[in-house]
Amino acid sequence: DEHVPQRLSEAGLTNDQVQIAWLKTAISSPGLDEETMNFPDDALKLKEYEKLIIDLLKEEFPNLKLVYVAGRSYAGCAKTNLNPEPYAYQSGFAAKWLIEDYIENQDEQFWVGWGPYFWADGTNPRGDGLTWSCSDYRDDDGTHPTQQGMEKAADLLNEFFSNDITSKDWYLG
E-assigned strands of the chain? Predict the structure, then answer.
């Protein structure tokens, strides 16, 4: 992301100080590429992209120790082909398979694991009560969050990092 160097600089940080990353990404317009039209091909392609991103992160941030991977939130309100359902749901499989690859090849200096799980089936509450409504997304595309959606995502991030055994010590400081 072109904003990372600027944000690090504004925070008075250097690339050498970065030890933890959170990765949430998607393939733009996956249904328009024949290769990614069907499951599991779309999720496998996303997994490979995420692996490439992690490799780039490791190069850019030499002291990176932890990467938390998360899939997308619900995309049933999408009005464009940017990343609609079922691709948003299936991004969770990409994260799962990526993490499994790292578990099989884990080294003691670097760890990849689950971040917060954002997907819920629209207004049907999942076990913890999480839902997503179309008011959580911008009217123009139905994909990017409104202020309400951003606050919901921020709450999920805060809840995860405050309580997960791998993050609560460094996150709560």
Answer: 20-24, 66-70, 111-114
Distance from C-alpha of 43 to C-alpha of 126, rounded to nearest angstrom: 22
Rounded CA-CA distance 85/77 in Å is 9
pLDDT tens-digit readout, 14-47: 999 999 999 999 988 876 655 546 889 889 999 9
Question: What is the rounded CA–CA span in Å between residue 136 and residue 143?
Answer: 9
Say if residues 69 and 53 touch (Cβ distance below 8 Å).
Answer: no
Return the ∠ at Cα 36 (arms to 34 and 37), rounded to 5°: 65
Work out the burial of residue 2: count CB atoms within 10 Å of its CB; fewer than 13 is exposed, 13-18 middle, 19 or more buried. exposed
